[in-house]
């Protein structure tokens, strides 16, 4: 009996060790402080720390897949990704019914940004301006102005490229997350700082977890709740502020 019990324990340990890594989606258009990508590999940033910790809490390895945004959407539709973080329901075109939403882990503030420190700007005041945007990103508050032609999108592939083009004077205004703006400004001399001139959105962002037997979905969702209660989200964010 003892021998059987030991054999069973060894078999369970072996099966646990053989469990595949969890597949986390990383968009190649993200930039620091959300994610650092070097030679196509995620190496640091808020999402790197969050996802590594989340996998650790459920006893799995994290496979951080750096992919184009459209590829991520296609793979989610085919249930080829296990977890996608840094997302809000309004940002997705499809409902992805096979995934479950976690508790939010941060508030994403999108800002209209300028090279000039000026009084708040009303979108209605802007006529014919080109606005720096990230390719594929959705900006609900700006969309009616783009559709009407009052404002024009000028896409760059990544958030840091958008801000670099703004700094270089390619356009007068760009959209940036508050975190990305602060990250860029802390590395700039005072005469090169960029300034928020309007808040466009403030969205709670979460993770979505694939709800299938090969994914510890409930354990992942409980881990997110525990991380929020323990203040781990704020600890991660504080490293990059």
Descriptive overview:
By secondary structure, the protein is an alpha/beta fold. It is built from eight helices and eleven strands. The protein is globular and about 55 Å long. The N terminus is likely disordered.
By DSSP, the count of extended strands is 11
What fraction strand?
Answer: 25-35%
Largest sheet: 9 strands, mixed
- Number of helical stretches of at least 4 residues: 8
Low-confidence stretches: 1-17
List the helices and strands and how they pair.
Elements: H1 2-18, E1 22-27, E2 36-38, E3 41-44, H2 46-57, E4 62-67, H3 69-77, E5 83-87, E6 99-101, E7 106-114, E8 130-134, H4 143-148, E9 152-156, H5 159-167, E10 173-177, H6 178-185, E11 195-210, H7 217-229, H8 232-238
Parallel strand pairs: 1-4, 1-5, 8-9, 8-10
Antiparallel strand pairs: 2-3, 5-11, 6-11, 7-10, 7-11
Summarize the structure.
It is built from eight helices and eleven strands.
List keywords for this structure.
disordered N terminus; alpha/beta; about 240 residues; 11 strands; 9-stranded mixed sheet
């Amino acid at each position: 009996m003892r021998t059987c019990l030991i054999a069973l324990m060894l078999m369970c340990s072996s099966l646990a060790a053989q469990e595949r890594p969890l597949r986390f989606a990383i968009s190649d258009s993200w930039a620091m402080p959300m994610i650092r990508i070097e030679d196509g590999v995620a190496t640091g940033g808020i999402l790197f720390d969050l996802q590594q910790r989340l996998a650790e809490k459920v006893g799995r390895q994290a496979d951080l897949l750096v992919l184009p945004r459209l590829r991520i959407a296609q793979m989610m539709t085919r249930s080829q990704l296990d977890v996608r973080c840094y997302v809000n329901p309004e940002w997705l075109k499809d409902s992805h019914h096979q995934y479950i939403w976690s508790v939010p882990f941060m508030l994403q503030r999108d800002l209209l940004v300028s090279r000039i420190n000026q009084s708040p700007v009303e979108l209605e005041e802007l006529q014919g301006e080109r606005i720096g945007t990230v390719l594929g990103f959705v900006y609900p508050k700006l969309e009616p102005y783009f559709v009407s032609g009052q404002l024009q999108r000028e896409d760059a592939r990544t958030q840091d490229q958008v801000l670099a083009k703004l700094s270089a004077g390619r356009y007068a205004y760009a959209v940036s997350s508050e975190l990305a703006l602060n990250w860029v400004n802390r590395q700039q001399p005072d005469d090169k700082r960029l300034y928020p001139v309007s808040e466009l959105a403030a969205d709670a962002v979460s993770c979505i977890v694939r709800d299938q037997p090969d994914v510890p979905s409930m354990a992942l969702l409980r881990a997110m709740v525990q991380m929020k209660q323990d203040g781990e989200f704020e600890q991660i964010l504080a490293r990059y502020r």
